Request: fold
Amino acid sequence: MNDLLGIFQNRALLCAVTAWFVAQAIKIPTYWLVEKKWDWGRFFGSGGMPSSHTAFVVSLGIMVGRLVGFGSVEFAMCVVFASVVMYDATGVRRETGIQAQVINEILRQVFIDGKPIAEDDLKELVGHKPLEVLAGAILGLITALVYILL
Reply:
């Protein structure tokens, strides 16, 4: 049981979770700035500004590098993992969101017997623009630096 409680003393994990939490919280006011409406559900959603996945993996990587060394295999694994996450966010997931926008527009325009083809829109906020990923990386870096300095 004592080993399990050690998870609450894992600074790398706590830093990563903090970076994710802050990024998700920032999505609410940034969504309001763009859309001019509050959507508290943005806290639990993916996509948008900043990328919480990027903040999560960047802060983890920096903390792992600080704790076990930037020349370690563990840090190298974090760099590879972060690279895949950021590439996926700006590539595959972003394209999925663009396709969802097009399909949703088609569904809005096409009716069968006065009823829409689909009841629910596809999720459009799936991936990230490069700027959103960059903002997530900067947030992850700042979060890790704060943890290092504490």
Q: What stands out?
A: The helical segments are 2-5, 11-35, 52-68, 73-90, 92-109, 130-149. The chain has one domain: 2-91+127-149. The two ends are 27 Å apart (CA to CA).
